[in-house]
Amino acid sequence: MERKDNLSKDTKILTTMLTIGMIMIFLVLLAVHHVNAVITEPTPCTTTIAEYRQLEAIDLPTEPSRILVMEATAYCHGTVTATGTRPTVGRTVAADTRMLPYGTKLVIDGVPGYVVEDCGNYWSDERSHTGYYKHIRGNRIDLFVSDYETAIQFGRREVIVEIE
Prior knowledge:
Elements: H1 2-40, H2 49-59, E1 67-75, E2 92-95, E3 105-108, E4 111-118, E5 122-124, E6 132-134, E7 140-144, H3 148-154, E8 157-163
Parallel strand pairs: 1-7, 2-4
Antiparallel strand pairs: 1-8, 2-7, 3-4, 3-8, 5-6
């Protein structure tokens, strides 16, 4: 008789555990179904991939922008540029060659005659993981000027750059 009661307790525990497990599985399946229904449910704003690519193509410019607003600084040291020319005041510009390749002719703040001939210098920087970084990157240019005082007076400013 004692054995019958123990078996019955074990059976009750097992039945309770199985019931809880099945309820949990049901809740998970219900949640997954709900998420899939929300994701796949069409909305008025939903477009197909082909429609999206057509819209994307409409928004793309046919040619790169010819006018940029860039951050400019000035430099005065150096006897040879990265292209092998002598730096010249009113002509030599250092730029990120991924944006403005060597030889690109520029009009800066309405003044024509500038040419990308340099790419800037590598400077030591304890914060960078390599120990060096190139300070002319992205939307920056560096104009060659005659002396240190002119470079300091020029400072750091935004300029309008037109690509010729």
